[in-house]
C-alpha cells in the first residue's frame, strides 16, 4: 500500500533552484610587529562577518601599541568580534585570557573558531595565553563568559573589553552598557575600548548618544584618538567622505564614585 503513495522526486528542488552559497573570502591584518594575521570571513553574512572593518584593524594596532600595560597578563573580552582580529592580536601579545564573542549564530561562531584555531601557532604558550570563542547576545547573562577567567579572579571580571564598531547599533546601546557593567572589573585600571567609524555620517549624533548613556551607567568617557585611514570602506556610500574614513577611539573606565 505504501508504494502507491511513493512521490519519488516530486518534492525535490530542481538543480540550480537556489543560488549557490557565496564562498568565504580571506583577509590579512599586518601587525606592527611584522606578523600577519589571516582570517576567514563569512561569505555574505547579514551580521557583517563578511569583511574586516577599519575599526577592527585600528583597534588591533592600538592593542599592540599599548600591550605592555593594556594586555600582557590581562583577561580580555571582545564584544561583536566578527572575524576576531583584535582578540587574536590580544592573545598573540600575551593576554592571560581572551574571549572572542559575537552574536550566537552558528555560522559566525564557527568562523570565529576557525580563525582562532588558524592563529594558534602564533599564540605564546610560556606563559600560556588562552583564546576562547563563544556566542553571546548583548545584555544577556554573563556567567558563561566569566567562567573562562581563571577561578582565582573569576568573580572580579575582565580587565579589558574590546568594542569595535558595535555602537552603530543604536537600539542596542542599553544592552552594551549593561554588558559592560556586568563584565568589567571594578578597578581604576580596567578599561573598555570603544572604537568606531561613522559609515553613515548623518547618524553620528545617534551613535554618540551611547557615551552619555555610558556615563549615566557609571563610566567616564575619554577620547584617546581620531585616526584618518587611507580610504573609505564602502566607496559608493553617501555622506561626508572624511568622516567615513575616520576611526574614533575612546576609553571608558569606572567613575570614581563606582569604586568606593
Automatic annotation (TrEMBL):
<dbReference type="InterPro" id="IPR019410">
    <property type="entry name" value="Methyltransf_16"/>
</dbReference>
<dbReference type="GO" id="GO:0005737">
    <property type="term" value="C:cytoplasm"/>
</dbReference>
<dbReference type="InterPro" id="IPR029063">
    <property type="entry name" value="SAM-dependent_MTases_sf"/>
</dbReference>
<keyword id="KW-0808">Transferase</keyword>
<keyword id="KW-0963">Cytoplasm</keyword>
<comment type="function">
    <text>S-adenosyl-L-methionine-dependent protein methyltransferase that trimethylates the N-terminal glycine 'Gly-2' of elongation factor 1-alpha, before also catalyzing the mono- and dimethylation of 'Lys-3'.</text>
</comment>
<comment type="similarity">
    <text>Belongs to the class I-like SAM-binding methyltransferase superfamily. EFM7 family.</text>
</comment>
<feature type="binding site">
    <location>
        <position position="102"/>
    </location>
    <ligand>
        <name>S-adenosyl-L-methionine</name>
    </ligand>
</feature>
<dbReference type="Pfam" id="PF10294">
    <property type="entry name" value="Methyltransf_16"/>
</dbReference>
<dbReference type="GO" id="GO:0071885">
    <property type="term" value="F:N-terminal protein N-methyltransferase activity"/>
</dbReference>
<feature type="binding site">
    <location>
        <position position="164"/>
    </location>
    <ligand>
        <name>S-adenosyl-L-methionine</name>
    </ligand>
</feature>
<dbReference type="GO" id="GO:0032259">
    <property type="term" value="P:methylation"/>
</dbReference>
<feature type="binding site">
    <location>
        <position position="138"/>
    </location>
    <ligand>
        <name>S-adenosyl-L-methionine</name>
    </ligand>
</feature>
<feature type="binding site">
    <location>
        <begin position="80"/>
        <end position="82"/>
    </location>
    <ligand>
        <name>S-adenosyl-L-methionine</name>
    </ligand>
</feature>
<keyword id="KW-0949">S-adenosyl-L-methionine</keyword>
<dbReference type="GO" id="GO:0016279">
    <property type="term" value="F:protein-lysine N-methyltransferase activity"/>
</dbReference>
<feature type="binding site">
    <location>
        <position position="53"/>
    </location>
    <ligand>
        <name>S-adenosyl-L-methionine</name>
    </ligand>
</feature>
<protein>
    <recommendedName>
        <fullName>Protein N-terminal and lysine N-methyltransferase EFM7</fullName>
        <ecNumber>2.1.1.-</ecNumber>
    </recommendedName>
</protein>
<keyword id="KW-0489">Methyltransferase</keyword>
<dbReference type="InterPro" id="IPR025784">
    <property type="entry name" value="EFM7"/>
</dbReference>
Amino acid at each position: 500500500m505504501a508504494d502507491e503513495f511513493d512521490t519519488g522526486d516530486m518534492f525535490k528542488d530542481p538543480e540550480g533552484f537556489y543560488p549557490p552559497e557565496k564562498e568565504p573570502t580571506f583577509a590579512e591584518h599586518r601587525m606592527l610587529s611584522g606578523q600577519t594575521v589571516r582570517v576567514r570571513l563569512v561569505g555574505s553574512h547579514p551580521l557583517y562577518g563578511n569583511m574586516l572593518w577599519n575599526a577592527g584593524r585600528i583597534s588591533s594596532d592600538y592593542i599592540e601599541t599599548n600591550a605592555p600595560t593594556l594586555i600582557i597578563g590581562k583577561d580580555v573580552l571582545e564584544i561583536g568580534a566578527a572575524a576576531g582580529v583584535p582578540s587574536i592580536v590580544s592573545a598573540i601579545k600575551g593576554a592571560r585570557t581572551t574571549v572572542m564573542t559575537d552574536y550566537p549564530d552558528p555560522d559566525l561562531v564557527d568562523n570565529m573558531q576557525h580563525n582562532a584555531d588558524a592563529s594558534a601557532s602564533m599564540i605564546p604558550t610560556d606563559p600560556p595565553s588562552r583564546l576562547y570563542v563563544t556566542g553571546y547576545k548583548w545584555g544577556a547573562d554573563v556567567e558563561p563568559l566569566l567562567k573562562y577567567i581563571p577561578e582565582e579572579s573569576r568573580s572580579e571580571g575582565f580587565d579589558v573589553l574590546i568594542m569595535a564598531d558595535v555602537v552603530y547599533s543604536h537600539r542596542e546601546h542599553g544592552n552594551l552598557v549593561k554588558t559592560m557593567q556586568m563584565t568589567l572589573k571594578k578597578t581604576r585600571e580596567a578599561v573598555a575600548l570603544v572604537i568606531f567609524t561613522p559609515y553613515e555620517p548623518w547618524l553620528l549624533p545617534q551613535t554618540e548618544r551611547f557615551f552619555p548613556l555610558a556615563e549615566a551607567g557609571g563610566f567616564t568617557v575619554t577620547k584617546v584618538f581620531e585616526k584618518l585611514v587611507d580610504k573609505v570602506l564602502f566607496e559608493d556610500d553617501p555622506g561626508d567622505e572624511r568622516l567615513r574614513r575616520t576611526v574614533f577611539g575612546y576609553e571608558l573606565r569606572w567613575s570614581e564614585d563606582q569604586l568606593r
